[in-house]
Amino acid sequence: MSELLSMKNITKRYGNGVLANEDASFSLREGEIHAIAGENGAGKSTLMKILFGAEQPTEGTIELRGKPVKLTSPKVATSLGIGMVYQHFMLVDELPVYLNVFLGVEKRKGLLLDKQAMIEETRALCQKYDMPVDPLAQCGDLPVGLRQKVEILKVLARGAKIIILDEPTAVLTPQETEQLFKQLRILRDANHTIVIITHKLKEMKKLCDRITIMRQGKTMGVVNVCDVTEQQISELMVGGTVRLKVDKADVTPGEVVAEMKTVTVPGTGKPKLDSVSLTARAGEILCLAGVEGNGQQQAIECLTGQIAYQGSVTVLGEEVRGKSIRKIRDLGMAHIPEDRMTMGTDQKASLHENLISVDFDRNTKLGFLKDKALKARSEKQLRDFLVKGERQTPISMLSGGNMQKVVVARELTKGAKLIIANQPTRGVDVGAIAFIHEKLVELRDQGCGIVLVSADMSEVFSLADRIIVFHEGHIAAEITDVANCSEQQLGRYMLGIDKMERMEAVQ
Asked: In the beta sheet, which residues pair with residue 281?
């Protein structure tokens, strides 16, 4: 395969002195699927944003088909056949698929929108690349797997030959992941070139041709996937040995730490939760699994006091209804929220301020903060959780993965009896994943009850002692023998293809 694109000696230095990339290089061959991997803060996303024109390099050159190019904006990059699908989709839920696909580049007949032309072209793209999406469907009604396909259709409609995907399988079921891989291979065979930012080692091995490894803003090397093992990839990423699977002793569940009895959460048309009952116990990791939008998020919101419900929800023996989020946390609950940007952090505050934010009242004397003790604790948290940032660094300056580490560090070190962990490792690197997994198991072994929500099947099977599967607001299955359940079978429960008769949930 001939070289399609090269980025040489790329340095990106922000105005505050932060060095995101340093003399980094990256190249693509025409018609390959290429992964870019590395620890959080390694510079992967910044380098890809430079490639898409969303960031400008301080130094370095970019060549496309052997000719120098200046990617001064996403519009320029798009005009040169470069498209990017972000992890967080940028769709207008109120619009149909075809209008989302052509949003900003609408086809017209005179002064009027040419609706039929856009519908037909969307349908043709779907057929060509085996993406079964109804052009007339409302985007807001689509499951997450189809919404992602709409994002891919958007870049294809704009003529993209190089497609960058940021963590494309983060919220997909195994079946949806397999379907995506099939479609990416179709794109590759049609002479498109694919770049994937991912932390998932199995996916790199299964899908990609080559991997560029980054560390501390620099390119550490490029490897052919067929020449390396998952363990070797992880070691190249972190610069040392990484334990990929956490050791777990047999579970011995204790007392009930959280309980839902016949809980219903109303929705538009049908309930978001429909008469759901479940228990979580001390000394176990209970995983709530399901395709996004099937009720597991509402279950978490009930447990954490964020939404109204019918039925009964108790946390550590007390009814949640009528209590503030703060009072629920004070019962002995910690919460790692799904959205670190809006719920997990204060973007205007420093790392230190974010780390101590849940413990102001326990770290005061005569109304004054115990600065020395708090400083020592936050510095230890940053060290232990391998956060790349200083105590006084604004958290908004961190990469998404490092921001996640701050949230996890704060919540896992507060001495909670119940931990609600909603996507705790989303966006973090393989070394941090291993550390967080070990910490969760350690806390479980100390008698803490953990309720886990994760879209990562490897994480589910590595951590869960018991799995409750949600589908369309109901519980489709309760898996107690996790070791003898396959990812494919779990995926069938998640998609509602199979259902399991449950044992009595409430005891």
From this structure: 256
